[in-house]
Amino acid sequence: MSINAKVDQAKAPFALPALPYAKDALQPVITANTLEFHHGKHHNAYVTNLNKLVEGSDLAGKSLEEIIKATHGHADKAGVFNNAAQVWNHSFYWLSMKAGGGGKPTGAIAAKIDASFGSYEKFREAFVAAATTQFGSGWAWLVEEGGNLKVVKTGNAEVPFTSGATPILTIDVWEHAYYLDFQNRRPDYVNAYLDKLVNWDFASANLK
Ligand code: MN3
Q1: Domains along the chain with CATH numbers
Q2: How far is the CA of 89 from the centre of ligand 1 (A)?
């Protein structure tokens, strides 16, 4: 079973997945200029590097998730892991946002947030704290683990599913995600993501 059916299920070599919206769809929070670099250069470079690293190896012909699980925690495979996980993380991040998204969720995901955190406001506090305190590069996540929702943060390319948590939503807090639009103001980027971009339909679809 795949971790997320909407993230590339093809086998290596991989292609850069198309953005699920136009490059200017997330403006003014995330500009077309940022997506031009972030998707067209950064995400694309992870795909290109990964394909080079797995070509001719025993990982050729495996899916992204199989490669991530097979290389996680193996120091001699760190290059493969980092590129594979970054391909997965970026595909999941694009899907975590949409034009006109954000704000308080409704339906099943709202009920699950209330049950797990006490309220949407408590969830929001935890998510902002994780995203703003991740030191250096990394990601903040809403995940489902043991039947509850939790907020976690991961460094560099790390993914939550290698430790058993199911990703529900993510925000990229590497500087390349926000520097062109927000410079050093990471908290403004995180708040704008929550208020204007979160794709709660995608989050709901990721609940078990
Ligand atoms: Mn990134």
Answers
A1: 107-205 (3.55.40.20)
A2: 8
